[in-house]
Amino acid sequence: MPKERIFIAENEAETALNIAAKLESLGYIVAGQADRGETAIQKVEELQPDLVLMEFHLQGQVNGLKAAKHIHANFDIPVVFIGAHADTSTLQSAVKAQAYGYITTPLEAHDLNSNIALALYKHSMDRKLRASEERYALAVRAANDGIWDWNLKTNEIYYSIRWKEMLGFKEDEIGTDPNDWFKLVHPDDQKQVQDNLAAHLKGVTPHFECEYRIKHSNGAYRWGVSRGLAVRDAKGHAYRMAGSQSDITARKLAEERLAHDAVHDALTGLPNRVLFLDRLQNRLERTKRNPEDLFAVMFIDLDRFKVVNDSLGHAFGDQLLITAANRLKQCLRPNDTISRLSGDEFAILLDTVSDINNARRVADRIKGQLITTTLLGVVERSPAASIGIVLFNSRYSTAGELLRDADSAMYYAKSMGGNQYQVFDDTMHTSAIELIRIEGELKHAVERNELLVHYQPIVSLANGKPVGAEALLRWLHPLRGLLAPQDFIQVAEDTGLILSIGEYVLRTACAQAKAWREAGHPNFWVSVNISARQFQDKNLVEKITRIFTETGLPGEALRLEITESVAVRDKDYTVKIMNELNAQGVHTSLDDFGTGYSSLSYLKQFPLKVLKIDQSFIQDIQNNPKNESLIAAIITMARSLGLEVVGEGVEKVEQLTFLQSLLCDNAQGFLLGSPISGMEISKLLEKEFPGPIGV
Ligand code: C2E
Ligand code: MG
Ligand code: MG
């Protein structure tokens, strides 16, 4: 039964009574009555009924229409009119007064009931809707997002105030046209926005999302992200789409800054090596498609830069580099790329050249420009440079190759006295210049931490467990990738760089061995290769002792590998050093046994502990049955001399089985594990080894 409280506003007392009786019979409560507009307003405010029944022609200083409007607007109480006429103009007035119904007289009880019930229902729904809208508006404001709501049938968009504000527009400056939005999108981003919208409307994507540039009313582009969702009918056709719009300019700028810094040099702002190689590679691909379209690469190294830097200080050095960068830029065309590779090295990509003479002319220009006197504080310095040039030809497939050859040509120019350019030719690869180049790079490699030590497990044949590892040097070359010792160790040996490099390997390997031992492998050892020059170094033992003190590694955890040729060079010296090492617990191994004198009787004279059989022997087993008996003899004799035997270069199961059958102690080879990083060895050591291997 309804219990709503109804207020009656009616001129005629009799009619009012009549209505009241009907309401009561229908179960409503009559909250009060009034016979004039102004009293109706006053009493309704006081009594707060659920609904007002009001005579359309209510009189008073305030008439029925005005009273109804006031009640609706100020007290949020629904008004239903009662009137004799239901003509169009009357009904229009009722609508304007925001009435919830109009009942014609004479009043029928069922009319009254249904009109009141509907009005109450409709009013309660309006209230809920308004509350929800308010909640939504609050949420939107709190999120600081702009909102858009697109009626796809009428093609009108509602843009929230915040949406407009974000772009610097006032409420009335943007209408309801979708183009008010799309015309502001940056021309380069238009397609992406349209494609993403279309994809979602077609149902290809679960929601619409797009980051794009959009024009602010001040003319500048901002970065925005728009997200939205379509509402679909039963057939899946979208008829409405709504979403949000946020300003992400700050985030985008930060991202751009980071991305820029990652590929640019901080001092000169020029592209760095990574970006240069990337552009060079792209340029190379272009010429591969169209071989007529030539380009050239220049490698520039400032002459005597180190002297300036060391004598005048880094601030001067930096200033000189900036000056040089600016002058180099002036010699180029807009499509050329100039990069600072490192230190005083620059590279240039000449985007379009017809032949080598083009590049020569640019090099001449650069020489002229650089020599213009530079004032650095009080001292006058003008940078001169050595320039290497390489013109693309079809033999080149990577950017790294081009840069390497330009670099070789630059070294050639430098070796000819500097302040000149040289065009690369093939002889430069094999010449002494190439060695000078590697030497220069290798010096940098040490400074720039490009040298790494990898470790190859050495495995016990008795139980299949790794018992130690051989330290093997690698060079992570910025252009040529990971290089093996054969590519550079000879240069290191010839130039004496091996002394510092070797010490670095020793220190790194000892620190690593200490870490493995502390991680629960107390008997694991590391074996380090020692070159001829290192072995001859009078301070070798002292250096090793120092490294033990530094790293806390006990002597028995280190083995040193030397080759036969090194050992036999000066027998007395070798014996002396080996004895000193033995005194510290350091074992010496004879590496690559079988490639030199291979005289076991000679070996007896050295206080050696380990013999490593060269991989060429092991790998020859199947091809050459004579080798089998030779290896058998070597192993047997070595054991009788008390030497531990290690088989190197084990690649096949048969080789492993063979060594096992001869009771060889340990083995090393790709079959058992390739050289890997120290961290990977740590992981390997954590594994379970089930028992004897290979058989
Ligand atoms: P090595 O001392 O005889 O080292 C073993 C070489 O054989 C390593 O080559 C290793 O990768 C390779 N090897 C291992 N298992 C197999 C296999 O199953 N099959 C084949 N074909 N090869 C295998 P890597 O690392 O290229 O080293 C070459 C040489 O460079 C070494 O020969 C060593 O004489 C020298 N070397 C390496 N690191 C250093 C170092 O730090 N200092 C000095 N002075 N020389 C080093
Ligand atoms: Mg070795
Ligand atoms: Mg070896």
Radius of gyration: 45 Å
Low-confidence stretches: none
Counted beta strands: 26
Main structural class: alpha/beta
Mean pLDDT: 90
Reported for the largest beta sheet, the result is:
8 strands, mixed, barrel
Hetero compounds = ligand C2E, magnesium ion
User: N-to-C terminal Cα separation, in Å?
Assistant: 93 Å
Our estimate of the beta-strand percent is 15-25%
Helix-residue proportion = 40-55%
Principal-axis shape: elongated
Report strand order across the widest sheet. 18-19-21-22-23-24-25-26
Give the helix/strand layout.
Layout: E1 5-9, H1 13-25, E2 29-34, H2 37-47, E3 51-55, H3 64-75, E4 79-83, H4 88-96, E5 101-104, H5 109-143, E6 146-151, E7 156-159, H6 161-166, H7 178-182, H8 187-201, E8 208-215, E9 221-232, E10 238-247, H9 249-262, H10 273-289, E11 296-302, H11 305-312, H12 314-330, E12 337-342, E13 345-350, H13 356-371, E14 374-376, E15 379-381, E16 385-391, H14 399-415, E17 420-423, H15 427-430, H16 432-447, E18 451-460, E19 466-477, E20 481-483, H17 489-495, H18 497-518, E21 525-529, H19 532-536, H20 540-551, E22 558-563, H21 564-569, H22 571-583, E23 587-593, H23 600-603, E24 610-613, H24 615-619, H25 625-640, E25 644-647, H26 653-661, E26 666-667, H27 678-686
Parallel strand pairs: 1-2, 1-3, 3-4, 4-5, 16-17, 19-21, 21-22, 22-23, 23-24, 24-25, 25-26
Antiparallel strand pairs: 6-7, 6-10, 8-9, 9-10, 11-13, 11-16, 12-13, 14-15, 18-19, 18-26, 19-20
Helix pairs in contact: 2-3, 11-12, 14-16, 17-18, 18-20
The protein binds ligand C2E and magnesium ion (2 copies).
